Amino acid sequence: LKVMTRVDNAFECATTITSAEEFLKFRNDWNNGAINSGTFVLVNDIDLGDVFLSPVTTNWAGIGTNHTFTGKFISTGKTIKYTKDGQRGTLQCATDYCGLFAQTSGRIHNLKLDFDVKSTKSNVGLLAGLGSGVITSITANGEVDGNSNIGGLVGLASGKLTFKNINLIET
Fold first, then answer.
1. Is the model's pTM score more than 0.85?
2. Using CA of residue 106, residue 73, residue 25, residue 14, what is the dihedral sign?
């Protein structure tokens, strides 16, 4: 569904994301090159546990795995969480650049995260494995485990990365 939304004091046409299924479709479409720009608005809390069968995903491929996310991902203060069987779930990657976003140079705003991220590789963070661009108003709750370049929010910064209003919750 396309809507007009206000971003940076201007109106833009944006694609809404209302469910875990729509979020995974957005991720898959971005990673497969079906979309490569745009503004995406998360309008509901989503639980990835609604679409994954176990508490640990294997071979998670974050948004921007095949080409860096360069768009705008705007939440209305909603949460992306992963719960299964009453416990916090883990996004587990088999490649470098592990996080909800594998690689981003876009803008991510007003989002809450509640899950763990694990990889035997490098560049691991809850939000992004590799980041540049602008990241604002993020609240993150979870554990991060990796081989090297491990960050609570972003595993490795590349180029200019601007953070504003970040809240990391101790678990």
1. yes
2. negative
